[in-house]
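Complex record, two chains
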Amino acid sequence: MSEWLPPETESPEEAVPTTGPAVGRDEWVAREGERRVSRAGWAGTVEERLRRVPWWAWLTLFVAAGSLMPLFESSGYVRLVGFNTVIYMMLALGLNLVVGWGGLLDLGYLAFFGVGSYVYAIFDSAKFGYHVPSILIIPAATIVGALVGLLVGLPSRRLSGDYLAIVTLFFLELFETVATNGNQIFGHDITGGSFGISTVFPLSFAGHTLAVQHNGIFAVSYYYLAIVMFLIVYVALFFVNNSRTGRAWRSLREDPLAAEVMGMPVNWLKLMSFATGAGVAALAGTISTALNASVYPLNFSPVVLITIYAMVILGGSGSQPGVVIGAFLVSVLLQVLQDPGQARVLFYLVIAFGVIAAYRVSVRLAIVAASTAVFGIAAHAIAASFHHSWVDGAHGGLAGVLANWVVVPEQLTPWVGQVAYLFLLVGMLCATQLRGRLRLVALPPTLYLAAFVWENEMIPNPGPARYIVLGLLLIVLMIVRPNGLLGERRVEIN
Amino acid sequence: MAERLLELDGVSLAFGGLRCVSDLDLHVDEGEIVSVIGPNGAGKTTLFNLITGIYEPDEGDIRLAGESIVGLQPHQITRRGIARTFQTLRLFLNLTVKENVMTAAYGHTKAGIFRSMLRTPGMRREEREISELANQKLAFFGERLMGYRWNQPAYSLSYANRRRLEIARATATNPRLLLLDEPAAGMNPVETHEITELIGKLRTEGGYTILVIEHDMHVVEGISDRVIALDHGTKIAEGTFVEVATNQGVIEAYLGLGTAETK
């Protein structure tokens, strides 16, 4: 359309006299070009170019970057973290299939990872004396995992939503119980009980054993093997997603009744979704077990399941690149957070971002920041005036700076910490429920209490602390991006 | 006489003592356009749910081209050649416009998960066929569902276009009998006129036999070979539009007893 024409003017085609309304004449389409939203300038150009990069180019770039990691990082620990991250990525891809595409809330997902692990461990360990070649046992374990998925799906295929979640969660508990007590099933030792199986052979191909350690350092071959498997799983699932089965999965997520009436066997498709996801998890289980040379029932506790769910939700349920990035971020974060110093930096950053997200850059933000600082200095001064041991707990680095602000006693009386924790919860409730000036008043003490509890209670217990930071991060992210990092905008209702 | 495509024989359905459909006889011949009218709660949509297998009748038989379809699952009935749209739209809102149509090809395509993972030549050929089928079904609506909107999620469509997309999706199952549940609901007069033309086009160009529920009497008048009026789950009148529209029982059902008498 020429530029000088006002939008209301009819286009030449529409000026042609017609008898009655023609089928399918649409003004919306005629003016489609004008409606396209795009940013101006070079940012818009870059955005447009980036959008045109095909999916396989991104994938290649990502895998290439991952493959180069061992060249720069010689630490066995970092390589091991890399390996575990790739395993998590595979698990997230499988869960994404069930939850993101099929829309089935499968809380038993981790059990299939366990099935794969145990099948490998039982048929490839010194404990029972079997040594099945890896080339056979990996596909076999995958198939067994998928079959178990099918079996679990059979009774629950008519269930959906909450009911399915309960049944599958029960299955995960059942799996853990069986694995823990599996050393006396009808008098036979099958799973090694709570001590698990700790003499698992490493992978071996054509008589050549893939050593887990090379000169005492984690062998990179496992890392590369995991990457290759991840790549295969990613591409295979990408193809399935863009096939009739993938489309059917996504339609039954949207509306099972409509899917059924449009000719899709919904129950069967649910089973297939369950089984395929379970197969992916079992596959990840095999190489993970081969690397760790052991398998324990505790590897399959609900905490791990929740971590995988966090990855999928954070990255954007339904989006393959999204869940991969989610898995990467969460896995790396959980490692980083093991160091109290790094966890501390992240904790305060998250809180700062949360407050900024709530108030934007405004006068109120300045008021909150200033009053929190003043509140802290005052509290510190008061505590110090009683006794110097009340503020002598922290030293050095960021902790040293904070030591002039947060009250960190050398020895905290236990009940003080608990009371502070309780008040923190009350303060958080107030800060979220109150509006306007009242919130402005409630926020500084709450923030200070959060810092107090963090420094005195969380830093000495890094285990729970890292999950708390991760949870906080998830909350902030979900507020900013409700559909995850790379999730598409979705509507839930008509 | 044309072949009887759909036959309902003494069909009854009750929900906990409430009779929704009772002893209903109904037939649709090959190539016919039949309208079902009736006040709200007359059992029209329940009739559609019975035909598509969402509900199973308590009594009676439903036959498609002479074969009973009672007891089959909805997807099996769809594969035998019955497709429908919904009064309350039931699109796959977060799938793209084109994917919505492509999903409906599930029943008459074959590629399984493993063939899809490996992207075998046969699977790719089938995908191309599905894609072409979707293009063709969407092109049926002229400019309305045209162009780059195919790659947009279905929730971005306007209400009228969602109705059109539902029809496109239903036709992609390759049906013989098309059940349209209030296709003109929520449309403006121009679009309503368009829908009337479109239903005619669906028969002449698409070759579908059509059973339609409609409240807009202009549409009913414009398209129907035969009109069936329902009230309280029973058939109260059947015949041409004029016959049914002037039927005393139908007027009473719509306007209430007494109004008709004083008229």
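Note: The longest helix of chain B spans residues 121-139.
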